[in-house]
Amino acid sequence: MLNRLGCHISSVSVFVFLSLALVTKSGYSYGAAVLFLSGLTLLPRIHRLRLDARDLSLIALLGFYFLILLADVVLHDMPVRELDRPSRFLLVIPALLFLLRYPPIAGFFWGGLAFGAIMAGIWAFDQKINQGVLRASGFTHTIQFGNIGMLMGVLCAAGISWAWQQKLRGIWTLLLIAGVIMGAMTSLFSGSRGGWIGIPFILLVLYQAYAGQFGKKLMYGAIVSVIALFILAWMIPSTGVKQRVNHVSQDLQLYFEDNNPNSSVGLRLEMWKGAWQIVPERPLFGWGENGYHERKQQLIEDQQINPAIEPYDHLHNEFINALVMRGVIGLAGLLLLYLGIARLFSSGKNGPPESRAYATAGVLLVLCYIDFGLTQVFFNHNSGAIFFPFVAAMLWALYRQSEKRNSGVIGSALYR
């Protein structure tokens, strides 16, 4: 009875988290809060949980990254409120324990993901085409909206392997394909072109994971379909895709030939130019936010960088931002988080179809965040800081459950 109730709680929470993530204000918070609070009930009995070395490794990666962010706040004398977003990496640990103890029903995860992507795509279409906004943004920042929508579509693509094993495989496959298309539409209508940089690598991961299961011809056809979708969006003026891509070359010309950084690309290049000047001055622990802003102001006053970047509080690159704010220690912690989680999931890339779906989705989650981080500090936004650790926890719990099911071990074996 308790097992069934726990699984229902985790299943509904996962579905709510994913389906509402982009279509209600802070939609991702509701499911996350229930998972966290439910996980707290397990802490007095944590010694009874059967956690293997990989489970502990994931917990350690999340906890260590939080400690690095905590050290940043302490060392640079920042206010306690700066721990708000970093706290997600700590708060997810009880949620992970609850998900491992009571794994959600797989259909609630994939269904929530697909519905979330579909509803985001519909909303992006309405904002862009019907309301005539320049870039669809939902309730959040435009880049966050477009990139998380794209990520949800990418994860739906990874789930098709799971769908193909279900009794209602036709319905599940069509639902996830719709999620892929609408997730892509969210990205295109938001004009979040930074996310498009990683598309070739995403397609490569999907091809390597599923060419053996679905056949090379089908995978080639899927890749061609993605390219055709992008070309179609390029050809339709109302999508704004062609304009967004053309702006890149215009921005580069403006920056390098006219020495004018007043563009999306130019401002980023000017920020990064300033960053590389100050990194050697405090390489180990970085400048912290206040120290960075003060040093940036000095560079502006010395006319070493353009004053146009003065209003921006981060460097629009996750890795450069970590290096400047938290030094080599901070950058190493970020890389360890990404590469460590990718390594945990990659061990299942050759497993049975269900396990492979979760493993591939886990790798793609990391890959997409690395991609998004090239032009945006994704963890500086609530949506980015909560989506990564909680979705990683969901995928890991489902992956571990599929391993046990394939080996004939029932889920209750996670508890003594």
From TrEMBL:
Presence of the UniProt keyword Cell membrane in the record: no
Domain O-antigen ligase-related: 179-334
Regions crossing the membrane: 56-75, 108-125, 145-164, 171-189, 195-211, 218-236, 323-345, 381-399
This protein's UniProt keywords: Ligase, Membrane, Transmembrane, Transmembrane helix
Cited CDD domains: pyocin_knob
Membrane-topology descriptor: Multi-pass membrane protein
Principal localisation: membrane
One term of GO molecular function: ligase activity
Subcellular location, record wording: Membrane
A GO CC term assigned to this protein in UniProt: membrane
PANTHER family found in the cross-reference section: O-ANTIGEN LIGASE, TEICHURONIC ACID BIOSYNTHESIS PROTEIN TUAE
Protein name, as recorded: O-antigen ligase family protein
Organism encoding this protein: Oceanospirillum sediminis
